[in-house]
Design brief:
mainly alpha
Length: 311
């Protein structure tokens, strides 16, 4: 009996396990609901209505058109721009081509500064210059370089007899390639940073073993460097493609609104539809389409990561 009372006394003195303080995350959850979740559902509702400058004062009672905005977005464009389907093709082409061009540039730059040499810190800093430059500054700079007649690009190409000095780069079919060149210049250091971080994690013992086995630099690159860079390079390519696909500032600052159909990327088309033609319902539908498209590669990448973990 005495032992039982002592045991009960010990249980009373033992500190109770404190529950996890879930209440501390309440402000973050509320902020997330207000900033992300609520606007998302408002956008879905708006995409199902015929909301414009005449009905925005009483937007909750805007006429419901259900999925007509999605059909209209894919079939025809607004009065100032292309259709969402055409802009989608421009955005996909722009993002994929830009990523394809910057990948070898970034890998080569990372390989150059991976090994120690005199002045490496300065070279590394210079490689980051295009990336740290504000995007709107980069866009304005390239807009001036591509100006018809007196722009530096026209003058250089004309002196090399590669193009006319009156080539129009900011309107017409050449505007797409002007946008790609400007974005390649601004974004290749991102691949460079990601690859350089991956190279730091590759052991030198692997390369020493390859040299002993008689492998040259090219064989070592394809047998050691690339396989070890595959995970981080895959993430870099995904993030780069999504970033280019969602790029609004560069085409907006370079071409203004409305742009040529060849450079009318989807984010810019959504802006024109929503805030220049004031067709908010159609603009919301195009935004939802953009979100769905951007989720597709992210879903497959996450699935690949889980499959890799299972293996």
């Amino acid at each position: 009996m005495e032992n039982t009372s002592k045991y009960a006394l010990k249980l009373q003195r033992r500190p109770k396990r404190s529950r996890p303080p879930y209440w501390m995350i309440v402000p973050a959850v509320v902020l997330l609901l207000v900033i992300v979740v609520a606007p998302f559902f408002v956008s879905i509702y708006t995409s199902l209505t015929q909301l414009d400058q005449y009905s925005i004062a009483n937007w909750t009672h805007a006429p419901l058109v259900w999925f007509q905005n999605y059909v209209t977005a894919l079939k025809q464009g607004n009065a100032l721009g292309a259709s969402a389907l055409q802009s989608l093709w421009v955005s996909v082409s722009f993002s994929v081509l830009t990523t394809v061009f910057i990948t070898p540039i970034g890998i080569a730059a990372a390989l150059i500064v991976n090994k120690p040499f005199r002045g490496r810190a300065l070279v590394r800093a210079l490689f980051l210059l295009p990336y740290v430059m504000p995007l709107f500054v980069n866009a304005i700079t390239w807009r001036m370089l591509f100006m018809n007649g007196w722009g530096l690009i026209d003058r250089i190409l004309a002196s090399l007899h590669l193009a006319s000095i009156n080539t129009y780069w900011l309107i017409g079919p050449h505007s797409f390639w002007a946008m790609v060149v400007a974005d390649v210049w601004a974004s290749w250091p991102f691949i460079y940073l990601m690859v350089l971080a991956g190279l730091q994690g590759i052991s030198d013992d692997l390369y020493e073993s390859a040299v002993i086995d008689g492998a040259g630099p090219v064989r070592s690159f394809f047998s050691i460097t690339l396989p070890n860079l595959r995970p981080i390079l895959g993430l870099a390519l995904l993030l780069s493609t999504l970033n280019h696909f969602n790029n609004f500032t560069l085409p907006f600052m370079m071409f203004g609104t409305p742009p040529s159909p060849q450079s009318d990327v989807l984010p810019l088309n959504i802006y024109v539809t929503s805030f220049q033609t004031f067709n908010f319902g159609l603009g919301a539908a195009m935004s939802i389409i953009t979100l769905i498209i951007m989720l597709i590669p992210a879903f497959f990448y996450i699935r690949m990561l889980h499959l890799g973990e299972d293996v």
